[in-house]
């Protein structure tokens, strides 16, 4: 197996491109794909202050590393979910990465700041764990980006994630979600700009990037995600990809090119008429936002105001 660029020994084959790469040209390929996504969708300006949502897994550490390599100024943001040892280990991976590169990792620990954890929250709210988790993380990511004055919030969603979400939303015709499934969501009242610069790379590639770069990431899946439909959609798409290399790519990018605009009006409707949450001020259709209701049902509390540099709910763990 030879590298398509230099004819040296290749370490990875990428079947959808019908190409093999050596270590250096694979890194170059990853940087090129991220740059292409950023340029094509106007995700990040060179002077932007970037906040990366970091879980300690391969995708978030890979994109943080790639953004730094590409010269962006990017801090990390970690949310402690209170999922036992899984949360402890994931935080240690995120913190070790930040420390090894002298980067800033901001942290909110949900049990410490809000008095609940994801297992309790999901039971109390009668939501699937991943739903309570996603709701909590989205709320805290948005708050951290806005309160910290960041220009853009980066998440580590890769091509497999986006294709699986698209597959699920299409199977069930969740048209309002289809209208919102874009690699960039612009800033608007109460929401930061959100971007997904990894959409041109698969999770196999982000894992290979971390391994070859010596980035120690958390390999284990979240224990609460067992039975999650998103994982079964990923498996189904992986089976299709084996027989038809490039299927995920053409499914997702074909949707963006040809279909997503047809669903935009429904997503826009969903975003209209929001007002500030009575408890926390985040945008919500009316009354108290879903996050504050979850905190309440789980027997938690709003955080005590602590006068730290970036607002009441954050602690700086690395600088
Ligand atoms: Fe969110 Fe597992 S990481 S439920
Ligand atoms: Zn090469
Ligand atoms: Zn609220």
The dominant shape is globular
Largest sheet strand order: 7-8-6-3-4-5-11
CATH fold-type name: Rossmann fold
**Low-confidence segments:** 307-319
Helix share bin = 40-55%
Q: Any guess at the CATH architecture?
A: 3-Layer(aba) Sandwich
Structural class: alpha/beta
CATH classification, class level: Alpha Beta
Work out the radius of gyration. Answer: 20 Å
SSE sequence, one letter per element: EEHEHEHEHHHEHHEEHHHEEHE
What's the CATH superfamily, by name? HUPs
Question: What features would you describe in this structure?
Answer:
Residues 50-221 form the tRNA(Ile)-lysidine/2-thiocytidine synthase N-terminal domain. This protein has a single domain (41-219, 226-266, 299-317), classed as Rossmann fold (3-Layer(aba) Sandwich), CATH 3.40.50. Helix content is 49%, strand content 13%. The protein has 12 helices and 11 strands. The strands form 3 sheets. A 7-stranded mixed beta sheet has the order 7-8-6-3-4-5-11, sandwiched between helices. Strands 1-2 form a two-stranded antiparallel ribbon. The chain has a two-stranded antiparallel ribbon with strand order 9-10. β1 and β2 (19-21) form a beta hairpin. The model is unreliable at 307-319 (pLDDT under 50). The chain binds FE2/S2 (inorganic) cluster and zinc ion (2 copies). One zinc ion binds next to α12. One zinc ion is lined by residues 3, 5-6, 8, 21-22, 24-25.
């Amino acid at each position: 197996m030879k590298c398509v660029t230099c004819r040296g020994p290749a370490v990875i084959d990428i079947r959808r491109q019908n190409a093999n790469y050596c270590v250096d040209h694979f890194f170059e390929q990853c940087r090129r794909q991220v740059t292409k996504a950023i340029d094509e969708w106007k995700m990040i300006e060179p002077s932007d202050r970037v906040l990366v949502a970091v879980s300690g897994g391969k995708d978030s550490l890979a994109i943080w590393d790639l953004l730094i390599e590409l010269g962006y100024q990017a801090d990390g943001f970690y949310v402690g979910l209170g999922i036992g040892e899984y949360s402890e280990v994931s935080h240690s991976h995120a913190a070790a990465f930040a420390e090894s590169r002298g980067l800033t990792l901001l942290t909110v620990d949900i049990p410490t700041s809000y008095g609940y954890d994801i297992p309790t929250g999901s039971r109390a709210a009668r939501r699937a764990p991943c739903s309570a988790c996603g709701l909590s993380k989205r709320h805290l990511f948005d708050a951290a980006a806005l309160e910290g004055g960041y220009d853009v919030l980066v998440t580590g969603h890769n091509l497999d994630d986006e294709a699986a979400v698209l597959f699920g939303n299409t199977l069930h015709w969740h048209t309002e979600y289809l209208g919102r499934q874009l690699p960039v969501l612009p800033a608007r009242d109460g929401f930061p700009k959100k971007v997904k610069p990894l959409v041109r790379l698969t999770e196999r590639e982000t894992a290979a990037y971390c391994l070859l770069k010596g980035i120690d990431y958390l390999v284990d899946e979240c224990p609460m995600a067992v039975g999650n439909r998103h994982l079964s959609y990923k498996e189904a798409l992986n089976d299709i990809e084996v027989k038809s290399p490039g299927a995920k790519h053409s499914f997702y990018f074909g949707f963006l090119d040809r279909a997503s605009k047809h669903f935009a009006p429904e997503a826009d409707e969903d975003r209209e008429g929001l007002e500030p949450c009575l408890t926390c001020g985040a945008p919500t259709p009316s009354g108290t936002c879903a996050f504050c209701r979850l905190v309440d049902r789980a027997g938690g509390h709003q955080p005590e105001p602590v006068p730290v540099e970036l607002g009441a709910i954050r602690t700086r763990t690395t600088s």
